[in-house]
Amino acid sequence: MATNLPYPDDWEIQRSFLEFLNNHNLTPAENISIVLDSDIHRYALVGDKHGNKSGAYCVYTDKWPGGWAMDWHVGHSVNWVYPHDNFNDEQNTYFNSDEFKQDREEAIKKKEQERKAKQAEAAAHARNRIDTLPEADGNHKYFIAKRIYPYGVKIDGHNLAVPLRDINGLVQSLQWIYPDGHKNMFPGATTTGLFWSVALDTVDPKDNKAVILLGEGFATMAKCYELTGYPAVAALSCFQLRTVAELLHQKFPLARIIITADNDKATELKRDFNPGVDAARKTCRAGLAVDCIFPIFPKPDDGTDWDDYALFYGDDKAQSDIHALISKALTPKHIQDIQSRITCINAQDLRHKIFPPVNWAIPGFLPAGLSILAGGPKIGKSILALHLALGIAIGGCVLGSINVQKGSVLYLALEDTERRLQERINYSNILTDDDDLSKLTLITNIPRQHEGGLDYLDWWAKEHSDARLIIIDTFQMFRKLLSGKGSMYAEDYDAVSKIKSIGDNHNISVTMLHHLKKGMEGDWLSEISGSQGIAGAADTIFSLKRDRNSNMGTLHRTGRDVEEKDFMMKLDGFGWLLLGEAEGMPIPEWKSQILTFLKDNKSITPMQLAQTYNIPIKTAQSNITRLAKEGLIRKTGYGTYGLPEEK
To answer: Is position 210 within any domain?
Structure first.
C-alpha cells in the first residue's frame, strides 16, 4: 500500500464495526471491545439467556479492514467492509486498482491458511481432551433434566463434553454443556460441517430404505433417537443444517433424511421469522432432505424441540406423534394427496371400537341411511311412505304395531298434487282430528339433486335437530338424469351415493321410492328398475308386491344393517298394517288353490284353475306366474305348470 494513504486507526475500525452490529440486529448485550486479530470471537446478543453467546464476529485489518458477524442461534450472517465514504480521488483509484485487489487476495489467502492451521491445532487439542475424559453416566444433572441417555458424551469436571466429528468420524471439536444448560464451543476449532450423532455407523450407503434424522441440539436428537430408533444427527444450530445435510447426502446418497426441526415460535413472534423451521424448509427445497417435521406447542414459551415436547406431553404421546409425522414424511407427495382423500382403518383398532347403536326411523324396520322402496305402479308405495311419515311426525304407532319417536319429516311428493295429498292424509288410518302435523313438511316441486336439490336436503337436516326421515317420491323425479354417454351403472351409483350422503352425514333415514322392471323373474333385487348400481349404493332395499284384486301384499327387505326378511302386509284404506314375517304365516288362498290342485293332478293350466275355483282367467294366469317366480311350481310345457322336480 502506498505509504502516503491514510489508514484508519484501531479505534475508528472498532467504532465503525460496532455501529455495523447495531444496524444489523447483532447488538451486544453488554459493552465489548472488538478484537482485530482475524479470529472468531463469541459474544452475548441482546435477548440471550444467561450464559449463552449467540453472537459471533471476525474482523481482519490486512490491506483494508473487513469481516463478518452472525447470530449463531438463527443463522443470520452478514459481511462487513470498512466504509469508503470519505476517500479522495487518489485513494479511490488505489483501492479500485488491480494492485490492491491482488494484494488483498493474497492477504486473505494467507489468513485462511493461518486460520485452518489454527483450527487443525485446536482440533488436535480437542481430540486429546476428549480421549482423556471419562464416559458420562446418566446421573448428570443435565441428563436427568432432559430425561435422555449419555450416548458417548464425556464428563469434564462438572460439565459435559459432546464430541463433534466430521463426516469421516474424526473428532474435530467438542461442545461443553454446563449443569445449567448453557453451552460453549472448544476455542479455535471449526464448527463447519461438524456434528454429534448416534447409530450413524449402522447406516448402509447402499440401503435405499435407510432413514436419518437431522436436527439441531444434542438433547433434541438424543430424544429423537430414543423415540424412533432411527440414526440421529445433531448439527448444533439451524445455521449448520444445510451443510451437514449436504455431507450426509454425499456419504449416504440413498438414505432418506428427515429434519426434526426446532419450532422457534417465540422468535417468530418477535422477529417475524422462524429460524429453525425456515432453515429446515430451505434445506428440503434444496433437495437435501425429504421433509421436515417439528413439534407444535399450545403456547410459544412451552418449548421448541422434540425433547421439550416429550417433557411437556410425555414420551408416549411424543413417540406416537413423531412416528406419525415421520410416516407421512416418508410417504411420496402424490400418495399423501391420495391418502387425504381416502379413509384407512386399522383392523385391530376397529376390533375394539365402540359404536353407538344403529339409529332407526322405524325401530327394527327402517334404519338410518339410504333405503329404496321399490314396487310396481299403483300398488301402494306412496301410501306406505306417507303412512310412515305421518306416524313419525305425530310420534304415533305405524304399521299397526310399531311405536315411533316423534320427529321432523320431509316428504318430497314429486308425483302428487296437494288435493291427492290432502285426501290421503285425511283418510289415513293412524290419524285423529287432534293430531298435530306441523313436523311434516311436504314438497311437490324441487330442483333435481345436482341443481340444488341435495343442498336443500342438507340444509333442511341441519336446520331440524330432530330430523328423523326424508322421503323422496320418486327417485326418478329427483335424480340427475342419465347422460347417455358413460356407464349406466356408474351414473346410477353416483346419483344414489350422493343422496345416501345426506343420511350418512346426519344419521337419519332417507327413503327413495322407485319402480320395478316388468316381466322379470328370479331374484327380486334384479327386478329394481335401472342398473344394479342403484341397489348397490343403497343401505336397505324394500320391494313391495301386491295383486291388483287383493289388499294383501309381501314386503321383501334386505340390506347392510338389517336382517333379510319377508313381511306380510295388508293395505288398510290409506295405510298399511304389518301382519308379521312371511315365514310361518298362513298360506294365501290363491297359493293354496294352485298347490291343492297339483296334489291331485300332475299339471295345471290357467284355464283349469279358473274353472275349478271360479275365478277370472287373468287372475288365474297372474297367480300361476307369481308362484312360478317363487319357485314353488315350474313350467312343464306350453301353458302348463307342475310341481318342482325332486332333487
So the answer is: yes
